[in-house]
Design a protein that fits this description.
Elements: E1 5-8, H1 12-21, E2 30-33, H2 36-45, E3 50-53, H3 62-72, E4 77-82, H4 87-95, E5 100-103, H5 108-112, H6 119-122, H7 142-167, E6 171-172, E7 177-181, H8 186-189, E8 199-208, E9 211-220, H9 224-230, H10 239-265, E10 270-271, E11 275-281, H11 283-289, E12 297-306, E13 312-319, H12 324-338
Parallel strand pairs: 1-2, 1-3, 3-4, 4-5
Antiparallel strand pairs: 6-12, 7-12, 8-9, 8-10, 8-11, 9-13, 12-13
């Protein structure tokens, strides 16, 4: 009997990619949900055999769905498929009753280890197209924005995993924000940062195959004490030590995120030397003092927090306007693969 599958992910691209790798004769029995509450609504009305569940979603995340399923005792098996690949994320979802925890992006072979997909069925999965759609606009439409969010989500998860393993902590990973904005709007893009707090920031340029930009890491000054403790630094705190700690965090996050994005869009990035934009300043002052560095830009904002610690930092990837055409082409290729 063909199983009924519910795919729950806030990314349209991720939903399409998962549906595409399932056998062709399963397609009529595949259902979709854009967030956890939507998935639970479907599960209460429809008999579902397998739930393919993302973790980081709006309205209701994957952890909340698993907890609610335990209360409802619904007869559905859950496979978590997430860009958040921290060891503790794996432990938490398995403790909540998930059948398996798989990382994005996912192949049909990996999924077949848990779903009853035989070799014959795998051969019936929809085939990829030969060429991407032609994109000649410098704008980012809704479909391409969704693809970029999913690419950023996977890269953010890889960076969070590296940070979690290094510091032996659990990193809270929110949903990435992706927008084409003017430099005057950068402060608004960083709305999560307290305008009255003092911050320190580092910027590092990157370039590769028609795509260039700068990575901007902003850390609230109140985070330094806990970062020093996690990195086992016990000396006196001063501006020099704080700068070293900021550099350490920047090297981890910027390098891992750029690597994660590069692998997905088939680009190799070269990174420049990090530049200190300022220390102990309000966020609007940091942006204003460096506003000539940026114009219209595709901005990806990734906010990291560490559970049970007063550590919060924002990582912005600011792509040049000239990069948008190449990025659109690369993203369109990924989107075309999912159709």
């Amino acid at each position: 009997m063909t199983p009924a599958i519910l795919i729950c992910d806030d990314s349209n691209l991720a939903r399409k990619q998962l549906a595409r790798i399932l056998p062709q004769d399963w397609q009529p029995n595949i259902y979709f949900a854009g967030h956890g509450a939507d998935a639970l609504s479907t599960l209460k009305k429809q008999s579902i055999d397998w739930l393919l569940l993302d973790l980081n979603m709006p309205v209701m995340d994957g952890y909340q769905v698993l907890a609610e399923l335990n209360q409802l005792q619904l007869p559905v098996q859950v496979i978590v498929i997430s860009g958040d690949v921290q060891p503790e994320a794996h432990e938490r979802v398995m403790a909540l009753g998930a059948k398996a925890f798989l990382k994005k992006p996912l192949s049909a072979v990996e999924l077949s280890a848990f779903l009853p997909i035989n070799d014959a069925a795998l051969s019936l999965t929809p085939k990829l197209r030969d060429a991407p759609k032609v994109v000649d606009t410098l704008q980012l439409n809704d479909e391409l924005r969704d693809v970029m969010k999913e690419v950023a989500n996977v890269a953010m998860g890889q960076a969070g995993d590296l940070l979690a393993r290094l510091l032996n902590v659990f990193v809270n990973l929110p949903i990435p924000n992706v927008n084409v904005i003017e430099v005057s709007e950068l402060t608004m893009a960083l709305a999560s940062i307290d305008p009255n707090s003092e911050n320190s920031a580092i910027c590092q340029g990157f370039i590769g195959s028609g795509v260039a930009g700068e990575a901007l890491l902003i850390l609230t000054d109140s985070s330094f004490a806990d970062i020093a403790r996690l990195l086992n630094y016990h000396g006196e705190m001063n501006s020099t030590v704080e700068l070293e700690l900021l550099m350490d965090i920047a090297n981890i996050l910027i390098g891992a995120v750029l690597k994660g994005i590069a692998e997905q869009i088939d680009i190799t990035f070269s990174q420049g030397h990090p530049v200190v934009l300022g220390q102990h300043a309000a966020i609007n002052e940091l942006i204003k003092a460096n506003s000539k560095r940026w114009k219209t830009t595709l901005t990806i904002e990734l906010s990291y927090g560490i559970e049970n610690f007063n550590i919060n930092c924002d990582l912005l990837l600011l792509f040049t306007e000239d990069s948008l055409k190449t990025l659109n082409y690369k993203l369109a290729f990924l989107m075309d693969d999912a159709l």
